[in-house]
UniProtKB/TrEMBL annotation:
It holds the Pfam family Hydrolase. The keyword Iron-sulfur does not apply. Keywords: Amino-acid biosynthesis, Hydrolase, Methionine biosynthesis. It comes from Panagrolaimus davidi. GO terms for molecular function: acireductone synthase activity; magnesium ion binding. This is Enolase-phosphatase E1.
Length: 249
């Protein structure tokens, strides 16, 4: 397996969920782990210096959203019980909140380091990442999960430590994944024209946003991914696995 010739783009940008790892791993392993361990983790770590900025941000967010969707006002930075209740509401509602993602990342760190969880990646991912490293096309990750959580998944994957194959990571610090400006920000940080970056995702709105930013886009269609409407399928090239990137068409 390998490229017969170098592709005409300069960087590969990968979504995680539904692209390199299964949606079921995120939905059925990572999210439930965070949900089920929220109280215990916050009770044990509420005074941790490492978590302090995240706790402060979660408290501020709680008080901004108090009375919305069952969110309660948090009276102090040590009120872990109320904070845990709010965190579980946000997890249930799949809110894309940076401090929530940061907290989940810390919880998943414990799970990875203690061997309770291994990061799922599809069987071909390791080999494709190696191919891209061999031809010196850098690979980057863009996910709504925190950079910290991304690194944990790839460093503790079922195929070992994959971080040597990855040149950088982006999360929603650059902007939401459905905003074209986020992809322009990534291109600026990579010092590349957007047209020289290929983005892979399983989400139609993300594909449109990246395309609006003038990135190249392939949609990844895998078993278990959410269905895509015909208009989106016709607008973008679709692939069923990353091996399609190294095959001539």
């Amino acid at each position: 397996m390998g490229f017969m010739e170098r592709p005409d783009y300069q960087a590969l940008l990968l979504d995680i969920e539904g692209t390199v790892t299964s949606i079921s791993f995120v939905k059925d392993v990572l999210f439930p782990y965070a949900y089920e361990n929220t109280e215990q983790y916050l009770q044990s770590n509420i005074k941790s210096d490492k978590l302090k900025p995240t706790i402060e941000a979660l408290v501020d967010l709680s008080n901004q959203e108090a009375t919305r969707d069952g969110i309660k006002k948090v009276e102090s930075l040590e009120d872990w019980e109320t904070l845990a209740s709010n965190v579980k509401v946000w997890i249930q509602n799949d809110r894309k909140l940076k401090p929530l993602k940061d907290l989940q990342g810390f919880m998943w760190e414990d799970a990875y380091l203690n061997g309770k969880v291994l990061g799922h990646v599809y069987p071909e991912v390791k080999y494709i990442l190696n191919d891209f490293k061999h031809i010196e096309i850098p690979v980057f990750i863009y996910s709504s999960g925190s950079v910290h959580a991304q690194k944990l998944l790839f460093s503790h994957s079922v195929d070992g430590d994959l971080t040597p194959f990855i040149s950088g990571y982006f999360d929603t610090s650059v902007g939401p994944k459905t905003d074209a400006s986020s992809y322009k920000n990534i291109a600026n940080q990579l010092n590349l024209p957007p047209k020289d970056i290929l983005f892979l995702t399983d989400v139609g709105k993300e594909a449109i946003a990246a395309s609006d930013a003038e990135m190249r886009v392939h949609l990844v269609v895998r078993e278990g991914n959410a269905p895509l409407c015909n208009d989106i399928m016709e607008r973008f090239k679709t692939i069923n696995c990353l091996e399609a990137l190294v095959c001539h068409e």
